[in-house]
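Suppose you are handed a protein chain with no further information: no name, no annotation, nothing but its sequence. What can you learn? This example shows the usual starting point.
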Amino acid sequence: MNRFAFLIHPLDIRRDVARRYPWAARLPEWVLEALLRILKPQVLGKIEGVRSPFAETEGWLIGVPMTPKGLLTDEKRSLPLLLRACQMAQQMGAQIVGLGAFTAIAGGKGKWLADHSPIPVTTGNSYTVATALEATVTAAKWMGHNLSDSTVAIVGATGSIGRSCGVLIGEGSWSVNSDSGKAVPRQLILIGRNPDLLQKIKAEIGDDGCPEVVTTTNLREGLKQADIILACSSSVAPIIEPADLKPGAVVCDVARPRDVSEKVRDLRDDVLVIDGGIVEVPGSPRWQFSIGLPSHLTLACVAETMLLALEGKVKESYTVGPEIRSDYVREMAALAHRHGFRVSGLRSFEQVLDSEKVEAIRRKAQALRTAR
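A reasonable first move is to predict its three-dimensional structure. Written in structure tokens, the prediction is:
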């Protein structure tokens, strides 16, 4: 049996530290931040019962005591801690390590760890892209959007996940299902902070893909005409607010922490926001430490790490660096199908979405459009 480890860290310092230490919920945030600075990586719990028709795996969650801001700005501290976590994973018997949330950004998006870790690593971003695109297109159909008639916006298009989503959907090569055909949006809007990188990504799509590709560094302008949005930024705080979205918009929030403000959930009952990258795990998974999802579900980045262990692809690092290979995205989608992983029913802000809720959103959006 090949085993894995997966690195996580606090996204919300009070909530996430309290999951491990309940007494921490009573402490001021400055005390919690000071506590994180003296802690070392530690094993949070084991994951067992992951079983496909062909193989079985188990692994460990390892906590890295750093906030998103720290992982982005303090590599002098973060990289040794991440390397120590990988060494712990090897000592426990793992053959591969997955990098969760901002641990996947530090050190050149996993590249530094791939060069220094005693065992291979993956950011899990290939399967994250595959599941995000699948869930987005499904949600868009539920809301009555035809991809070929829609404007699609990619938030964070210059990041590894955003770039891959933009290129794949712009080329129409996002699906491993041949029945899907080569569907491309009517217009694709790439939103990011670096105009030169945006132009480079636009050029990658080429002339055979989406007929109109637009780039912008203005988030608000880029969002206001979008029917379908993939939110993939690496912001440490929400950047999409209620006023940014048109009635009937579908937003797949792939980012962790979230790109979409909770105000959208509270104030906009005419838009559909779905959680990106949530998948069902085969077997009877048991988690000694919860990552905030039911035991049969996990994030796609965790699932990619599990899949590589199940398939025995543990000889070298997989999804690392600033660019995600399109063939890796399709390979992970195929491996997921083989081993029985599948995109979960749609969820919004960690709550299950059923057809009645989606239909109510669709009707409200239609009424607002008619009123205009």
